[in-house]
Amino acid sequence: MLLFSHMKQSQLFAKTQKNAPKDEVSLNAQLLIRAGFVDKLMAGVYTYLPLGLRVMKKIENIIREEINAIGGQEILMPTLQPKENWQKTGRWDTMDDLYKVKDSSGREMALGPTHEEVIVPLMEKFLNSYKDLPFAVYQFQNKFRMERRAKSGILRGREFMMKDLYSFHLNEKDLDEYYEKAKEAYFKIFQRAGLREITYYTFASGGSFSKYSHEFQIVAPSGEDVIYICQKCKLAINKEIKDKIEKCPECGGSDFKEEKSIEVGNIFKLNNKYTAPFNLGVTDEKGEKKEIIMGCYGIGLGRLMGTIVEIYHDERGIIWPVSVAPFKVHLLDLGQKTEAEKIYQELTNKKVEVLYDDREISAGEKFADADLIGIPWRVVVSKKSLEKGGVEVKERQAGKIEVMEIKKLLEKLEK
């Protein structure tokens, strides 16, 4: 999706609100709804409005770049999935949060909560020889899960956007090597999204297919998870398996700090859990059929967006990191339309992403909306600023106001 680089606020589809819906308890949804980023259709289901979709697409593009860099090829798989595939893996009757639908002929299908049951039979058609491996494909796709406690805003949805990556390997060594690449790519993704210092690689239960899986947890007071962070090497252990692990699996340390956290990504070594039911294998160099093993790697885009809001906000609103902000500059006209229009055009010509508040409302309302929406740079054009030789520039995070010439502002924004 190509993102438009500028927008007049008078023409923006969504409007800010003074109050969030009374039934919305999560901070991320309260702020995102009030600021005009999302609209709640029902519990766990949200519409992404123009500002919210811009943030989502920024996150998507960061993920795409990093997954492409480790050899992922992007595809798009269907949401509707055949019952037979789910019966083959044994999950039709065992997955509690699976949405099942029936058409008028009585045929049953699943609304995909994940895509192992689609990707493995797809690979049967294209993987024939050991020379085709290793191989990795990914997608950005709507998922559906029958979430019974959808009270966390866009952190935990019934319908949500996920990046799911699947890798296919001939042996464990090859899977281990790719798993490490994916781990590093995930750290880069969260770092670029502004969550560098508070992302922890976390040991979690591997379920029925592996001793451990691994989560990427963001420390947050509002988190639903609890992790124990090793004070020596900073690896973490999820509360669900802490009783089984007395010492850190990485360094052997025993000093742990308990923190609340939000899971923003996970990676699993699936081994042959899904390839075996479909008999997915290839011919090796000796001409013998060899079973393929696989890994899967997920990131919830809305969950990551909601986490950023949970971390970066104050009493006035959201504070977006530059990399995922809907726009870089929020330009406010305070009664100096001719000059403001000229500056808007200059910013647009320089390809600076700008939201221009050209509305006929009070200065106070404009300032309040700018703080609520949380765009990194606020630029005010007023009689007072023009008399001082420029515009008032304020960084949303720092809060210090500085008057500067447009030329200097453009130089600053180009850095």
Walk me through the structure.
A hairpin with a 5-residue loop joins strand 15 and strand 16. The chain has helices spanning 27-34, 50-69, 83-89, 116-126, 172-192, 239-242, 301-311, 337-349, 363-373, 383-387, 406-414, and strands at residues 6-8, 38-42, 45-48, 73-74, 80-82, 99-102, 108-111, 135-144, 159-169, 199-205, 212-219, 225-230, 236-238, 256-271, 281-283, 289-291, 293-300, 313-314, 317-318, 329-334, 354-357, 377-382, 391-395, 401-404. The strands form 6 sheets. A 6-stranded mixed β-sheet has the order 1-21-20-22-23-24, with helices on both faces. The protein is an alpha+beta fold and 415 residues long. Helix 1 (27-34) packs across helix 7 (301-311) and helix 2 crosses helix 7. The protein folds into 2 domains: 6-314, Bira Bifunctional Protein, Domain 2 (BirA Bifunctional Protein, domain 2); 327-414, Anticodon-binding domain (Rossmann fold), CATH 3.40.50.
**Uncertain residue ranges:** none
CATH topology of the largest domain: BirA Bifunctional Protein, domain 2
Domain tally: 2
Task: Give the neighbour order of strands across the main sheet.
Answer: 1-21-20-22-23-24
Mean model confidence by pLDDT = 94
The rough form would be described as elongated
> Helix proportion of residues, in percent?
25-40%
Question: What is the tally of beta strands?
Answer: 24
CATH class call of the largest domain? Alpha Beta
> Which structural class best describes the helix and strand composition?
alpha+beta
How would a textbook summarize the main sheet? 6 strands, mixed
Task: Compute the number of helices.
Answer: 11
Radius of gyration: 24 Å
The end-to-end span amounts to: 25 Å
| Secondary-structure arrangement, i.e. CATH architecture of the largest domain | 2-Layer Sandwich
Strand percent estimate = 25-35%
| CATH homology-level superfamily of the largest domain | Bira Bifunctional Protein, Domain 2
